[in-house]
Design goal:
Blueprint (H helix, E strand, L loop, with lengths): L2 H7 L4 H6 L1 H8 L4 H8 L4 H8 L4 H8 L4 H8 L4 H10 L2 H8 L4 H8 L19 E3 L4 H9 L10 E4 L5 E5 L13 H4 L12 H11 L3 E5 L5 E6 L11 H6 L1
Parallel strand pairs: 1-2
Antiparallel strand pairs: 2-3, 4-5
Helix pairs in contact: 5-7, 6-8
Length: 248
């Protein structure tokens, strides 16, 4: 192992990347793609997501496309939408077609429409990594699914959709204890307002205020759920706009 790689091998740790992803990305960007792969291969998916979210898009795309396709699609679908859109644009045509074949079609459509979002758009800060359940799922099955998630990944809200992915309602994990385990999700879910990826931050603030919610689903024109937005993720008005981020 040559000296630059040897020096970085002791630096690029899970703890360091999660604490300072920007510094870790800047260090890795100076290396050749195969050297980056050598260093990141032992890292967990959560760490890779934090790293690729802030890495220079062309470099991140070059590394990501050399990972196993299922691993790369998992990471890509959990990146912030502006960064994921820039990585997708950096892929070659054949690889783009290959990865699109394993991604959720609704997520692909979000990335395709990302450049049409306004300067302050919900789509730029929504999370595409969310728990979606079917209306006909039993609560006992949902409980088991949530038990298998890491504690930090248990959502404040589960999105309830039909078999086509159309939003039907929401259910909070904290409410599950009040219902019989044999009940189906569709019989105990709550109705929910929803946002669109193109909605402005001002519109999102209005809906959050009206509903007194902390998390809202985000749907496309067909009412298919493509993400969720936490109230806390709406940036202050002086934060860098989505347009600035996607065109930098």
């Amino acid at each position: 192992m040559n000296s630059p790689i040897h020096a970085l091998a002791s630096l690029v740790t899970e703890k360091f990347i999660l604490a300072a992803p920007g510094k870790a990305a800047a260090a890795l960007e100076t290396l050749a793609t195969h050297e980056v792969l050598q260093l990141i291969s032992p890292l967990k998916a959560q760490t890779l997501i934090a790293l690729f979210n802030v890495m220079e898009p062309a470099k991140a795309a070059a590394v990501l496309r050399r990972l196993p396709i299922r691993q790369s699609s998992y990471v890509l679908s959990r990146l912030e939408v502006p960064q994921a859109a820039k990585l997708m644009a950096s892929f070659s045509g054949p690889y783009r077609a290959r990865i699109c074949a394993v991604l959720d079609p609704s997520f692909v459509r979000v990335l395709e429409g990302a450049s049409s979002f306004g300067e302050d758009a919900v789509g730029s800060v929504m999370q595409t990594d969310f728990v979606s359940v079917r209306t006909d799922m039993k609560l006992s099955q949902l409980i088991e699914r949530l038990k298998n998630l890491p504690r930090k990944k248990i959502p404040a809200l589960c999105v309830v959709c039909d078999k086509e992915g159309v939003l039907k309602g929401v259910i909070a994990p904290a409410e599950l204890a009040f219902y019989a385990p044999g009940s189906v999700v569709g019989s105990v879910m709550n109705p929910s307002a929803a946002l669109r990826p193109q909605d402005s931050f001002a519109r999102a603030r209005e809906v959050f205020a009206e509903t007194e919610s902390e998390v809202l689903p985000v749907v496309n024109e067909q009412q298919i759920c493509v993400g969720v937005l936490q109230r806390a993720r709406i940036p202050a008005e002086d934060k860098k706009s989505f347009w600035q981020k996607i065109t930098r």
